[in-house]
Amino acid sequence: MSEYIYGKNAAIAYLKENNQPHHVYLQKGGHFQDVEKLLNKNVPRSFVTKQDLDKKIRGNHQGIILEIEGFKYYDLEAILSASKNNLLVMCDQIEDPHNLGAILRTCDATGVDGVIIGKHRSVGLNATVSKVSTGAINTVKVAQVTNLVQTLNILKERGYWVVAAENGVDAIDYTQLKVDMPIVLVVGSEGKGISRLVKDAADILVTIPMRGSVNSLNVSVATGVLLYDIISRRN
């Protein structure tokens, strides 16, 4: 099934990873020399109107759309075998592609070894995730699994500690978390948070204290706060 990558930054990031699309759609009259330099000569190109591009994508395509076969998922074992920083992120029932894209962008910036998402009740890799991630969708390994709890049990057997971001009486301040251990950071959905079974599988619950009137941060912002605290204290 074909997928689209759109926007200059996302397209260039995809091509710089030595990927090639099936087809490229460029807006007539646009300047895309930097993109065309990265394209193989045999990749078909169509020069079309802005209206034609608008019909393909709901978003700011900036005059360029790449048609690809599909976004790549990785096997969990492949992620673990290539692990360098003993740091993973699991997204539990995150449905907003903007949040997943922002999380991937932060994971790339902080050196996360891989991201785990569920096959059900979760957004998968798509054009919007790609655009928001500004290319991180091509550099961060993503595994899509059927059962998050079983996956957490596998990770525990491999020495990972399951740290879930969740408000609650038994949650500790995130700055009190010991970080010198393999960690899989679990973050929950925008409305419901982490599901009960996943929460029950966690070894440690952490919370970010809120000093103002709102009771929580956006999930992608919270993920950024937690990841940067982990890597800064490790360093």
Strand order of the largest sheet: 7-6-5-10-8-11-9
Average pLDDT for all residues = 93
Helix content: 25-40%
Instruction: Sketch the topology as an H/E string, one letter per element.
Output: EHEHEHEHEHEHEHEEEHEH
**Straight-line N-to-C gap:** 42 Å
Number of helices in the DSSP assignment: 9
β-strand amount: 15-25%
Using the CA coordinates, give the radius of gyration: 19 Å
Number of strands: 11
Parts with pLDDT < 50 across at least 5 consecutive residues:
none
Largest sheet report: 7 strands, parallel
Shape: elongated
- Helix and strand content put the structural class at alpha/beta
Topology:
Layout (H helix, E strand, L loop, with lengths): L2 E4 L1 H9 L6 E5 L5 H4 L8 E4 L1 H7 L7 E5 L7 H6 L5 E5 L5 H14 L3 E5 L8 H7 L8 E4 L2 H10 L3 E5 L6 E2 L9 E5 L8 H5 L3 E4 L11 H16 L1
Parallel strand pairs: 2-3, 5-6, 5-10, 6-7, 8-10, 8-11, 9-11
Antiparallel strand pairs: 1-4, 2-4
Protein described:
The strands form 2 sheets. A 7-stranded parallel beta sheet has the order 7-6-5-10-8-11-9. It has a 4-stranded mixed beta sheet with strand order 1-4-2-3. α5 packs across α6 and α5 (97-110) runs parallel beside α9. β2, α2 (33-36) and β3 (45-48) form a beta-alpha-beta unit. With 235 residues, the chain is of the alpha/beta class. The protein has helices at residues 8-16, 33-36, 50-56, 76-81, 97-110, 127-133, 148-157, 196-200, 219-234; strands spanning 3-6, 23-27, 45-48, 64-68, 87-91, 114-118, 142-145, 161-165, 172-173, 183-187, 204-207.
